[in-house]
Amino acid sequence: xxxxxxxxxxxxxxxxxxxxxxxxxxxxxxxxxxxxxxxxxxxxxxxxxxxxxxxxxxxxxxxxxxxxxxxxxxxxxxxxxxxxxxxxxxxxxxxxxxxxxxxxxxxxxxxxxxxxxxxxxxxxxxxxxxxxxxxxxxxxxxxxxxxxxxxxxxxxxxxxxxxxxxxxxxxxxxxxx
Length: 177
Description:
Layout: E1 2-4, H1 9-18, E2 25-29, E3 41-47, E4 50-60, H2 62-73, H3 95-101, E5 104-111, E6 114-121, H4 127-141, H5 149-168
Parallel strand pairs: 1-2, 2-4
Antiparallel strand pairs: 3-4, 5-6
């Protein structure tokens, strides 16, 4: 799980630290980063001005990943065609979700004769976009973007077997059994 540390930073760091940084990671979005995420760096956690611990912070290349996502959203499946890489499947979400998913627009301005790209909000609620991007970063940190087809099939099989095992287990009749 990835936690956005851009708001209420110390509380977010403390939350991440409770899990030891293995299953929960601290993330900070960086528009200019040209990788999905950068190497982690240690940051201090402070409370009332005193250092109370450290945690690892990953910078996330949100500009790059938004560009990637917007490209994937343009993918279409034609009849008798293989699903294109990055194609996005969605359950029945309402219109507000998709407004939030596409709440930002890539623009540029000229700075010292060069184009400098940035993302501008065009809709107030961009949480679906942020969640999608940070989930992508967390998956990348976990190595999921390097999985081959065999690894994906193994995960799918674990999921199916896990559901069957849960159904077979019987609850014990009391705490002491």
